[in-house]
Specification:
Elements (H helix, E strand, L loop, with lengths): L11 H13 L3 E2 L3 E6 L3 E6 L8 E7 L4 E2 H4 L3 E2 L2 E2 L9 H6 L2 H15 L6 H4 L17 H4 L5 H26 L10 H14 L1 E2 L18 E3 L14 E5 L3 E6 L18 H8 L10 E3 L9 H12 L12 E3 L12 H5 L2 H11 L2 H4 L2 E3 L4 E3 L6 H24 L10 H32 L7 H13 L8 H13 L10 E2 L1 H5 L4 H21 L14 H21 L11 H13 L14 H20 L2 H4 L2 H4 L11 H14 E5 L18 E6 L7
Antiparallel strand pairs: 1-4, 2-3, 4-11, 5-9, 6-7, 8-9, 10-11, 12-13, 14-15, 16-18, 17-18
Helix pairs in contact: 4-8, 7-8, 12-14, 14-15, 15-16, 19-22, 20-21, 20-25
């Protein structure tokens, strides 16, 4: 079985002996296949010159040659008997230890019998402990190759769990008075446990002779001699058929001449393959990465999870949500899955969105038995964009961590290190391809005027892909990235919803923009000159740039609404419909400031900054009132506390823009051009979010 290293007697003669032993008990190997061996694939089976058609029973492994917990307890049911063949444990040990531990100790016992064991022809083909490549056998320099990956801590936990299970079971073995119990060593236990973990099948393969009612409460694993010779190929079409006399390995696809006949261990990612089998695949289509995302105590995510548990106490939903980053070619997805959910599992995307949501968005939370998410309504794409930004930061951090850890430029010196390198490289590639998708979603939010423009989208995609070095991805991966982007819809139906300050000015009608540009330039320049904390800060970086814009838009919106409300007959609006809709939206969701009470923000430093800004505005009104008065035809002739830049309105907008902005990474694809140690400066930019209605 791939990844377990060479067997003790890995010659074809050894496997021929196993085949003859299996045939002597009623087993068989189809005449159109043969046993083969080479350095890359190890011992395996392949089709002869005539090939093998679909639905061929390749291997028949007799039930009598299988090994499981049933043999350890000398199980009988009707006329079916699973003999213990010379290794009989006391009932006290069987009753006190778990079935999986009993089976592992049973395998050790058969190994200790050597050539006297009934299963000797099979055991002789199993790899020796020194040749196993599963994680518990990593040591010293091998572990350097796992540095920075999820597997380093996972290995530590796995070994600790196995050690505890061994010590508990070994104590029970000694209490039961088993003869020569000291021979059941930790090394042999580790070997036997690895054999079961890497080679055993579900007890369902014995359902032809043992009904489910006859199975113990815990899962039982079954060793199937000869069937376990087959290597793993993702998505291989095979089946194991349980019969009364044998377990059959059946191929459900045609196999061409001289081609290997592979098994399918299931849609396992590289982490699972490394953990259980000691190998992984550089081009594993079923690969994905598990992301550790904890909901901080008291956070909206933690609170709503608790609500979900209370609402659905009898839910069959797993306690842990599947937080995954999928391979670009992951095959097990619904055809209409949005592009973001095809790379970032919906549970991950929704959870990060909830953690990034503001109070307004949290009011739209939807909780069902199997999902927690924000509703897909006008104004809620901000949380999704904030989530994408956080995901990009996590991806970049993950790539840099793996690039900068590990053994450096050294080449692998053994099989374990070779597989660990494949694993490391595949993890980096997985995050890099996911970064391309996430950066695309963010790019769409930053480009304006593309609504319904298919040619513009294709041009934008061409520019996006041109940022990626040609050697970064194989042609097939690059093509798959583009196809996925073009064929799948996004969870964000609109484009161009994040704005820099200069881009916001382009949303204003000509005359309003002209006067506001003069006004905002003067205000921001004076603030930078007269507020010590802002000295040297440009207008594009000033913390007051967005509040100034929003104050203007709200003032113009209220003034226009007031005019129309008086029935003046004037239908002209100084704002485009997008800004009018947005201004009404934020006024509905953020309580406007009162006229008779002075507001203050909670943060003392922010309040001090705002107070200094008030002083700048007051001095400018007194010394250069024209820059404000020229805007009065649009903002209205507000006086005193009703002025559009009054302290209360500035504080209201300050608090509102804190909630309605998105801090996004700048140029996330730049990392793909850097193959160094990972010393990449990750800078972010703050953008104001202005949603777009689907029809706009």
């Amino acid at each position: 079985m791939a990844g377990n290293g060479p067997a003790a007697g890995s010659s074809l003669e050894t496997y021929s002996s196993l085949l003859q032993w299996m045939k002597s008990h009623g087993g068989d190997l189809h005449e159109s296949v043969q046993i083969s061996h080479n350095e890359r694939q190890g011992t395996h089976i392949r089709a002869k010159k005539e090939g093998v058609p679909s639905n061929t029973h390749i291997i028949k492994t007799p039930v009598a040659t299988t090994m499981s917990y049933f043999n350890a307890i000398d199980h009988r049911i009707g006329d079916v008997h699973f003999p213990s063949h010379g290794v009989k444990f006391p009932n006290s040990f069987i009753e006190s230890a778990r079935p999986e531990e009993v089976a592992i100790f049973f395998l050790v016992g058969q190994h200790l019998r050597g050539s006297e064991s009934f299963w000797h022809p099979y055991l002789h083909t199993l790899p020796e402990p020194g040749t196993l490549t599963t994680l518990p056998y990593y040591e010293d320099e091998d572990l350097d190759w796992l540095e920075g990956t999820n597997l380093l801590q996972a290995r530590k936990q796995r070994v600790a769990q196995m050690r505890q299970k061994y010590e508990d079971s070994y104590d029970e073995l000694q209490k039961a008075g088993v003869e020569d119990s000291e021979r059941y060593s930790w090394d042999l236990y580790l070997w036997a446990a690895t054999i079961f973990a890497s080679r055993a099948f579900s007890a369902k393969v014995l359902s032809g002779v043992v009904s489910e009612l006859g199975l113990p409460e815990e899962n039982v694993s079954v060793l199937l001699p000869f069937i376990d010779i087959s290597n793993h190929r993702p998505l291989a079409k095979v089946e194991w058929r349980a019969g009364r006399e044998s377990v059959d390995f059946v191929t459900l696809e045609d196999v061409a001449a001289e081609q290997e006949i592979a098994n399918n261990y299931g849609p396992r990612n590289n982490e699972q393959l490394m953990m259980n089998y000691g190998f992984c695949l550089s081009d594993n289509p079923c690969d994905y990465r598990t992301v550790c995302l904890r909901a901080p105590p008291g956070s909206p995510l933690q609170v709503v999870r608790e609500q979900q548990r209370q609402l659905f106490p009898d839910s069959s939903k797993d306690s842990e949500d599947p937080y995954y980053v999928f391979n670009i070619s992951y095959p097990l997805l619904a055809p209409h899955t949005p592009i973001e959910h095809s790379i970032f599992s919906p549970a991950l995307f929704n959870a990060v969105s909830i953690l990034a949501a503001n109070q307004r968005e949290l009011e739209t939370l939807e909780v069902s038995e199997h999902e927690i998410r924000l509703s897909n309504t006008y104004g809620n794409s901000r949380a999704a964009l904030a989530a994408i930004s956080q995901i990009i930061i996590e991806l970049i951090t993950h790539i840099i961590r793996l690039r900068s850890s590990g053994p450096g430029p050294k080449e692998p010196s053994n099989l374990k290190q070779t597989h660990a390198k494949i694993y490391r490289d595949s993890q980096i590639r997985l995050s890099e391809s996911a970064l391309v998708i996430a950066a695309w979603t963010l790019q769409r939010a930053r480009v304006h005027g593309l609504t319904g423009n298919w040619e513009g989208i294709k041009q934008l995609l061409g520019d996006h892909m041109a940022r990626i070095p040609n050697e970064k991805f194989p042609d097939a991966v690059r093509s798959r990235l583009q196809v996925k982007i073009l064929e799948r819809l996004s969870v964000l139906m609109a484009t161009g919803e994040l704005f820099s300050f200069d881009e916001l000015l382009d949303l204003l009608p000509g005359e309003v923009r002209e006067h506001f540009l003069v006004c905002s330039t003067a205000v921001l320049k004076n603030a930078s000159r007269n507020i010590p904390a802002l000295r040297g800060i440009t207008a594009q970086a000033s913390p007051f740039r967005f509040p100034l814009f929003v104050c203007l838009v709200v003032a113009v919106h209220i003034t226009n609404r007031h005019k129309h409300g008086l029935g003046s007959g004037e239908s002209h609006s100084f704002l485009p419909s997008r800004l009018s809709q947005w201004a009404g939206f934020i006024l509905d969701h953020y309580l406007p400031p009162p006229d008779d009470v002075a507001w203050a923000v909670e943060d003392e430093d922010d309040e001090n900054l705002l107070s200094e800004f008030d002083e700048v505005l007051a001095a400018m009104r007194e010394q250069n009132a024209d820059i404000f008065s020229k805007l009065e035809p649009f903002t209205g002739g507000w006086q005193g506390d009703a002025w559009w830049l009054s302290p209360n309105w500035v504080r209201w907008v300050w608090m509102m823009t804190e909630q309605e902005c998105v801090q996004a990474p700048e140029d996330p694809l730049a990392l793909l051009s850097s193959e160094g140690s990972g010393n990449v400066m990750l800078s972010t930019e703050t953008y104001l979010y202005i949603p777009q209605s689907p029809q706009q």
